[in-house]
Amino acid sequence: MSDNTKLRYQPYSGPAAGWGALRSVARAWLDSGQPIKNLKAMLKTNQHGGFDCPGCAWGDEPGNGAVKFCENGAKAVNWEATRRAVDARFFARHSVSQLREQSDYWLEYQGRLTEPMRYDRASDHYQPIGWDEAFALIAKHLQRLDSPDQAEFYTSGRASNEAAFLYQLFVRAYGTNNFPDCSNMCHEASGVALNASIGVGKGSVTLADFAQADAILVFGQNPGTNHPRMLEPLREAVHRGAQVVCFNPLRERGLERFQPPQEPLAMLGNRAEPLNTAYFRPALGGDLAVVRAMAKYLWQWEREARSSGAAAVFDREFLATQTLGVEAYLAQLDATPWAVLVEQSGLSLAELEQAARLYAKADRVIVCWAMGITQHHHSVATIREIVNLQLLRGNLGRPGAGVCPVRGHSNVQGDRTMGINERPPAAFLDALERRFGFSVPRHHGHNTVEAIGAMLAGQARVFIGLGGNFAQATPDTPRTHQALMNCELTVQISTKLNRSHLMPGHEALILPCLGRTDIDRQASGPQAVTVEDSFSMIHASYGQLPPLSTQMRSEPAIIAGIAEATLGKHPVDWSVLVANYKAIRQLIAETLPGFGDFNQRLEQPGGFHLEHPVSTRQWQTASGKAEFAAHPLPPTLLHRRIRQTGQQPDLILQSLRSHDQYNTTIYGFDDRYRGVRGRRDVLLVNALDLQRLGWEAGQEVDIVSLWADGIERRVRGFTLLAYDIPPGQAAAYYPEINPLVPLESVGEGSYTPTSKFIAICLEPCSLKNPEKLLGALH
Ligand SMILES: Nc1nc2c(c(=O)[nH]1)N[C@H]1C(S)=C(S)[C@@H](COP(=O)(O)OP(=O)(O)OC[C@H]3O[C@@H](n4cnc5c(=O)[nH]c(N)nc54)[C@H](O)[C@@H]3O)O[C@H]1N2
Ligand SMILES: Nc1nc2c(c(=O)[nH]1)N[C@H]1C(S)=C(S)[C@@H](COP(=O)(O)OP(=O)(O)OC[C@H]3O[C@@H](n4cnc5c(=O)[nH]c(N)nc54)[C@H](O)[C@@H]3O)O[C@H]1N2
Ligand SMILES: [Mo]
């Protein structure tokens, strides 16, 4: 398969979903090599007794039997459930150096990893190794470190609750809290901000709330691609006259028009329905100013109401009885000048007022957000500001209202609940200690950025990855690659070949694991695993397809193997737990609040809801109240280290996902809704900026990012595309531009790489023959 065809660009005129989605699903099926088998399995997606979709973390209504997968869920399933195998013969044919020349797309396309492999430095090939030998090698490396804190234990958000619980139990019994995870690059800021404001770092709404909301605000999210099943509640909301208000610099098709693929009449009549009632296009990183301006309007109207005796704008009783700090916050609103709000938000005063009016008109409001909010310097402050706004009108802890950080990976939220957390709460550690009787490490561990720093500095020497693609998902790519290769041992527990396997430490292992779609058979029979969605619903997932090879093992079995080799039967008998996952769930029930009768409650269709204290207006903050945060606005959105370069950036770049990818997994080269086809190495820029900067659409350029640390960060040979994007902004696909994100450019209080705010300059292309070299670059 050739990776890169010619770039074609034609603005997309169809609706989201609809025929385009059906065509794309059919292609994914056929390409899996086992379409009929997969079709049967797909019909079980998100059904009782079936598997949880390995796509996103959007939740589903239990029961009703309707088909419950979307285009991108189908792609995820067919990508995992392929007949192609990456086995010992494959690795005998290709050296690691040769594989590095291949694109990320090509690597994963080769198929499922089917047997454990060990890197042989002398021949530069991976060679087969037995499972026991692999476990013994890991144990040897872990046992000889000077301190357990010299090992990093990464987790990606597909790991089940059972796998995550065992993993953290093993790692803490081994002696460290070094749990860098994908969440550090994703919704970390949501967790930090919500914990501080309302006492729980999770969203407060369930799917049922969407049906009752009068307004749904969607900030920095592209659900048409990344959470397609969210489009239906949005459509339903518009239908019944609720406001759906979008804040996104790009006009995302998935927020504009929608054709339900499950409704034949709408499809045949080609009828598309609007998905929003207002659309605002702020500056990158401008949302803090947007939300503050909305609050400032509310405050102005509340003041007027107070003096005229008109109906209150604020929920005065809620503010008085449930919250702390409103006075300081209102003073902060007074202290923030309108001119600064207009400048930083990128919206006009009239637009800001319109947004505030839409908000104030609604009795019940849900605010949703995703990466357009979290991957910024001021992400924690922005999310706290969203909560501030919601508090003013009591939009928390009642039906149809609340906050909804829409999660990414299908079990990223569950992994945190299970203790994948480098800064675990004391109550969690106390509970572990009580149940398992060993003294747990209390000091903080490394997050993703700190782990990279430690490996670069030689302070961390072993890296174990439970899923994911650490080499490509992280910032500052060349430094991260170096960090992995500095290690004495790298271990990747994976389903598919990716670049992380090609950045081996001195020694390296690939441990092939079962995925969500595979039947997981243990001593007591086929096993279910459990996951938690964005609405805190816990449900079971049963694999449906026989694994491609008998050599693959489940994630719990692999973790148990590593644990037993390293620690023996301490603090539990690992193999007994793996024989029947009910035993793992029993331990979870005995350790974590909210999981009583875990095994029994799973039998209900749709699973069960983990109670959210905010739904009954209990605030688990230090003060016992919902807390306002009165941050001043940053003086400028440009970080000090950008200003210190003394250079003015040409543009501010955001990195985003195309319609044909799942994070670093690239399914194809089309971004259907944005009209970009055939290529991913493109830079979307406003035509006015091209003119201003003296470039032409179609030209190839190098992109250089600004950060005053003496390191040159450059990607080469990107094609300029004139696109409907606000002037001064640019957009390009992740992970191709990750080399431009400085490791030290992180969110305040969240440590999340600022992947949506990269100051860049364009330079003439330094590639001689870009077309030919493209494969090597990706
Ligand atoms: N098919 C598919 N599904 C996925 C994924 C995938 O890669 N593919 N990834 C999963 C994961 S892990 C995650 S975290 C989610 C990600 O889901 P999203 O957050 O939707 O993903 P992004 O593509 O990063 O989109 C960010 C959106 O925010 C907008 N944006 C960027 N900067 C700003 C800003 O400063 N302000 C505002 N208001 N908007 C901004 C962008 O224009 C874009 O529409 O999706 C999950 N689901
Ligand atoms: N520039 C930029 N960087 C970003 C982002 C961005 O928007 N811009 N987004 C960030 C976000 S939100 C996230 S969540 C991270 C994602 O970071 P990761 O979660 O680390 O990356 P993925 O691409 O999801 O990982 C894909 C790999 O996971 C493995 N895998 C798939 N399924 C399974 C499974 O069931 N079990 C196991 N063990 N392995 C499996 C496969 O081998 C596959 O190659 O990237 C972050 N990086
Ligand atoms: Mo994510």
UniProtKB/TrEMBL annotation:
Gene3D superfamilies in the cross-refs: 3.40.50.740, Dimethylsulfoxide Reductase, domain 2 (3.40.228.10)
InterPro entries linked: Asp_de-COase-like_dom_sf, MopB_CT_YdeP, Mopterin_OxRdtase, Mopterin_OxRdtse_a_bac, Prok_molybdopt-oxidoreductase, YdeP_MopB
Needed cofactors: Mo-bis(molybdopterin guanine dinucleotide); [4Fe-4S] cluster
Molybdopterin oxidoreductase domain mapped to chain residues: 112-493
Keyword annotations from UniProtKB, A to Z: 4Fe-4S, Iron, Iron-sulfur, Metal-binding, Molybdenum, Oxidoreductase
The protein, known as: CbbBc protein
Similarity annotation: Belongs to the prokaryotic molybdopterin-containing oxidoreductase family.
GO CC entries: membrane
Entry annotated with the keyword Oxidoreductase: yes
Organism per entry: Halopseudomonas phragmitis
GO molecular function, one term: 4 iron, 4 sulfur cluster binding
Pfam families: Molybdopterin
Classification via SUPFAM superfamilies: ADC-like (SSF50692), Formate dehydrogenase/DMSO reductase, domains 1-3 (SSF53706)
